[in-house]
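User: Hey, my collaborator sent me this sequence without any context and asked if I could get a structure. I don't really work with proteins. Can you help?
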Amino acid sequence: MMDTGTRKFRVIAPRRMVALGGVAVVAIGTPLAAQTERAEDVPAYVVAQAEGEGEGSAQAPASTGEGEATAEGEAPPELAAEGAADNDEGEGETAGTGGEGEGEAEAAAAGEGEGAPATGGEGEGESAAGSGGEGEGGTAGLAPDVAFLTDLAFMEGHLRAGLALYEAGDLSAAKTHMGHPIEEKYEAVAARLDRLGYGELREEITALAAAAEAEEPYEKIAEMFGKVRQTHEEVRTNFDAADQLKSFAALTRVAADEYAIAVEGGTLANVKEYHDAWGFMRVIEAEAGELAASDDAKASDAAEAIVEQVEAAGAAFGDLQGQGDYEKDPSILYAAAARMELTGLGSD
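Assistant: No problem. I've predicted the 3D structure and written it out in structure-token form, which is a compact way to encode the shape of the chain:
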């Protein structure tokens, strides 16, 4: 059953599984390269996000409450007005990102306010609709379609991390991540998935998590993950490229918040949150890569620019378990998210 309020963008070709072998070392990026400024095309406050201007450093995750966004001050009212209350689709969007009230679109890279990262770990950012999940991965303030796509990718990111950990033999961590989509996020997307005709996704993810708990062979786990991903891909065909691009930027901000917890104090303090950030970036890498192959030249160019930002963000990652020589600096991810936002705005 199709959602008549959305538009199709791409036709799914036979899907490829993104190779997840050789997970011991992740080499996904290079240091941030200079980017072409597009200040004439986008609001000044977004340019300030990308360039690290304004008050505060790019390392500080977004705080709830006040917090001055950038040198330009508060975000435009039309962005600040968007939020979970405006979500006519009724998903239980998670509250907690982006400082409610003043500067809804404020950069997590620049806020002055004090407080814990917006999305936090488990238990922080409770769902505004009381969906029953633990509220990790906030999407408050996003347009409904963008929030939905971000939540969908959030679930897939946990599964990607779980699959890689399972292949690497870290079954305990893999089981944890495989269980998180249902525990933390599914209720936020359940109603919309049902309306789109993809309610079976709950059973597919539940079965995958159960197979991991039973320690089934990796090949079976990978096959079941492929089925879940195929469903995700079919769901995405109901949404425009512009919304998908914006969801990549939103999920990168979530990854940055998780990563900030992971490397608090400049050392790897929470490997689970590191896994989260790693998995979220893999989803963006895969999905932007597919959009980059689109026949739509504008969408393709924007997606290619996002892939470049994912590669640049690779400077913040070592191997799957956070070992190796890399920059433990959340500002790398926040900067990538801000530049993706420039790309997303330019795609409209």
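In plain terms: The chain has three domains: 59-135, 142-237, 240-348. You can pass these tokens on to your collaborator as they are.
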